[in-house]
């Protein structure tokens, strides 16, 4: 698995696996804001309860909750589907380009405060088309804010069109065609929604078409679904990155392959706890994944629903696992290396990361 580097400069190269699960922490030293890339983020999952109520009022929509407290009481999930039901229902408040822009602006502002310097943001176009909202409305609303993210927040961004795996592939193909026809500013495609029973192979043609169009490729796999879905996403879809992927730990041959090929896994610890994929944060496989030498990063998934943004994920991980400054810096370096940003932007962010003081 290679040597364990003990200096920041080593993060310039390929991140290297540690030989122990966790290092000594230095809890007395306040965490410095690590520059990170957020690679797994659903923009619709950033709709905070307050914004849901504000947009409902603006658009004359009556919500099925009397107030914020009643809405927050619904944030008790038993599995992925119980979350998705609320996630899709709350999208009803997104009606105009301005609504999509307001949601995106709020995320960028909060993410910048969390140390996010590059964000790859998924949008679920089919979830809006099915409500009668046009592709132009949702795509342009989000993209208009991303266009100036560097000037406004010092954050580079990429828009990822995510496709709903519980819908037929034909629907995804039609939407991808429409996105390409309108020259939508997307850099990649993803695959999300209900995983079990909707294996990656169902979307073979979609991924072939996206690859042909020059788009980067990622897909959710191994969140609730089995390790075999991760293998399928790699072998049939040809994805470069796996979103979640925690179930890979059930398959030692797969872990070895992911390590060898340095396949990025965009892990979302608080999401996994809230969706009951793991019992508690203390049971999360992240330390074991790091110890195995996997290329993992920390992401927030749907921060408004799962109890926190990237900084909250890091803070709670630190509290439970006593991650060292070195472990955190490695996770940050992994996120940057695993992004679809330009090589120039990656180098800039790695330099920023390496210029910080390490307390370990
Ligand atoms: O965590 C998730 N998993 C699958 N689909 C999703 N869509 C939004 N969030 C998620
Ligand atoms: Zn996700």
Can you describe what's shown?
Residues 1-10 and 12-31 have low confidence and may be disordered. The longest helix is centred in the first third of the chain and has 17 residues, at 97-113. This protein has helices at 49-58, 68-72, 80-90, 97-113, 125-129, 135-146, 149-153, 169-181, 204-212, 227-237, 252-260, 269-274, 286-292, 303-306, 310-321, 325-337, 343-354; strands spanning 36-42, 116-123, 156-164, 186-192, 216-221, 241-244, 264-267, 295-298. With 360 residues, the chain is of the alpha/beta class. The chain has one domain (36-354): TIM Barrel, CATH 3.20.20.140. It is globular. It starts with 35 loop residues before the first strand and ends in a 6-residue tail after the last helix. Its cofactor is Zn(2+). Substrate binds at residue 302. Residues 1-24 are annotated as: Disordered. Residues 35-354 form the Adenosine deaminase domain.
The distinct bound ligands, ions and cofactors come out as: hypoxanthine, zinc ion
Strand percent estimate: 5-15%
Note the gap between the termini.
21 Å
How many strands? Answer: 8
Low-confidence stretches: 1-10, 12-31
CATH architecture classification? Alpha-Beta Barrel
Which characteristics define this entry?
single chain; 360 residues; alpha/beta; TIM Barrel; 8-stranded parallel beta sheet; binds hypoxanthine; binds zinc ion
């Amino acid at each position: 698995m290679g040597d364990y580097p003990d200096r920041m400069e080593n993060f310039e190269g390929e991140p290297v696996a540690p030989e122990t699960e966790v290092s000594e922490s230095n809890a007395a030293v306040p965490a410095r804001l690590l520059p990170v890339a957020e690679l797994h983020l659903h923009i619709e999952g950033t709709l905070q309860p307050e914004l849901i109520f504000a947009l409902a009022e603006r658009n004359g929509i009556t919500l099925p909750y009397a107030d914020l407290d009643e809405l927050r009481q619904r944030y008790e999930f038993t599995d992925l589907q119980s979350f998705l039901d609320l996630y899709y229902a709350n999208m009803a408040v997104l009606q105009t380009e301005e609504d999509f822009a307001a949601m995106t602006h709020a995320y960028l502002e909060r993410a910048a405060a969390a140390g996010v310097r590059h964000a790859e943001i998924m949008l679920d176009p089919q979830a809006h088309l099915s409500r009668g909202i046009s592709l132009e409305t949702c795509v342009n609303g989000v993209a208009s804010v991303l266009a100036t993210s560097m000037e406004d927040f010092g954050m580079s961004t990429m828009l990822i069109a995510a496709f709903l795996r519980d819908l037929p592939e034909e629907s995804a193909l039609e939407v991808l065609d429409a996105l390409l026809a309108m020259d939508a500013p997307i850099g990649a495609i993803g695959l999300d929604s209900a995983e079990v029973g909707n294996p990656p192979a169902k979307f073979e043609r979609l991924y072939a078409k996206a690859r042909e169009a020059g788009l980067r490729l990622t897909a959710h796999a191994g969140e609730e679904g089995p390790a075999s879905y991760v293998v399928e996403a790699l072998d049939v879809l040809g994805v470069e990155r796996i979103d979640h992927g925690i179930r890979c730990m059930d398959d030692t041959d797969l872990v070895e392959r992911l390590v060898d090929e340095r396949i990025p896994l965009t892990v979302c610890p608080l999401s996994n706890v809230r969706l009951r994929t793991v019992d508690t944060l203390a049971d999360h496989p992240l330390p074991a994944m790091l110890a195995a030498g996997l290329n993992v990063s920390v992401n927030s998934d749907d921060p408004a629903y799962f109890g926190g943004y990237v900084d909250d994920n890091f803070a709670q991980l630190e509290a439970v696992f006593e991650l060292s400054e070195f472990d955190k810096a490695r996770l940050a370096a992994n996120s940057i290396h695993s992004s679809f940003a330009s090589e120039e932007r990656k180098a800039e962010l790695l330099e920023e990361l390496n210029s910080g003081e390490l307390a370990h």
